[in-house]
Amino acid sequence: MKIGCPKEIKPQEFRVGMTPDAVRDAVAHGHSVLVETGAGMGAGFTDADYTAAGAQIAPDAESVFADSGMIVKVKEPQAVERKRLREGQVLFTYLHLAPDPEQTRDLLDSGVTAIAYETVTDRAGGLPLLAPMSEVAGRLAPQVGAWTLQKANGGRGVLLGGVPGVLPAKVVVIGGGVVGTHAARVAAGMGADVVVLDRSLNRLRYLDDVFAGVFRNAYASGAATAAAVAEADLVIGAVLIPGAAAPKLVSRAQLATMKPGAAIVDVAIDQGGCFETSRATTHQDPIYEVDGIMHYCVANMPGAVARTSTLALGNATLPFLLALADKGWKAACADDPHLKAGLNTHAGKLTYAAVGEALGLDWISADAALAL
């Protein structure tokens, strides 16, 4: 199979879909890889690195899309990229379709077979291709939250860890999954007073057993969430429903209960955000203010640490990438129900229920798509 890796064009996105090591493995499996010139520069990989690994360097994105049977990316295809997709081609990348009707419509119109990183599963019920970026985003969230809290950025002027004689900032993490756990660890490591809210008692027991004394946790009832948010200096939204739009857990009315200059970091913004006032921003212009509360809602947070993120993502995606290339998408999905869970569109049909429910669109099962 000819595998194509174009340069990411989403604003301030520096990651790349394939590392030179991934190219080397794909070539060893008998495939050819076409990499757009400059695709890896943001992550520290040169065209020479890719050539040494066995890739061909394409002069532009048009060549990559036109000549490849499978396109491997990081972020969802932008409008100009979606016009280059075609039926019979496989797209393997993050999609986050539930809050994005325009992208969904374009993918369906193109007929492309789109497999989304964020809905591929594993035997433990986890999301192995989302997890590495969730880990990165979780660890970044207190860092960018601390920056947002600085007075020059409109924040309260509070130091996350405080100093002797001055109490540390209060940090509330909504969601105790991968993002929330990593966010809480880092925030606590910075000296903040941290509480994690979640509705899974089993997850809360796990956090208590593993991190006892590092940070506190509480059941995320509506009243408990409202009370915690009102006391917080920094709130990190870390809630995920796989493939579906994120629930709105903090309303605009609740902003009035928060301290002026408090900060919100919405890590769920890729799925629409878990705060009513969230809207996607970029690394170039990351924060905005609503009713005196500073919002950080960058939709590709891991892109800020592109080399770490690219290496982490590549480690996770490579086995699935090779399976798709070696077997073809139908056989690979038929052999692996966890990869099959990643199928979101095929031949103009939506194949993921949560996206259909979120957007009010008809959908068929992945098994039905395999039978087409």
From TrEMBL:
PANTHER family xref list: ALANINE DEHYDROGENASE
Family to which this protein belongs: Belongs to the AlaDH/PNT family.
PROSITE patterns given in the database record: ALADH_PNT_2
GO BP term, pick one: L-alanine catabolic process
Residue ranges constituting the Alanine dehydrogenase/pyridine nucleotide transhydrogenase N-terminal domain according to the UniProt record: 4-137
UniProt-listed Enzyme Commission number(s): 1.4.1.1
CDD domains: L-AlaDH (cd05305)
UniProtKB keywords: NAD, Nucleotide-binding, Oxidoreductase
The protein's name: Alanine dehydrogenase
Alanine dehydrogenase/pyridine nucleotide transhydrogenase NAD(H)-binding domain span: 149-297
Catalytic activity as recorded in UniProt: L-alanine + NAD(+) + H2O = pyruvate + NH4(+) + NADH + H(+)
Organism: Pseudotabrizicola algicola
Binding site for substrate: 15, 75
Keyword match Nucleotidyltransferase: no
Active site positions: 96, 270
Binding sites annotated in the UniProt record for NAD(+): 134, 198, 203, 239-240, 267-270, 279, 298-301
GO MF annotation terms: alanine dehydrogenase activity; nucleotide binding
An example Gene Ontology CC term for this record: plasma membrane
One family name in Pfam for this protein: AlaDh_PNT_N
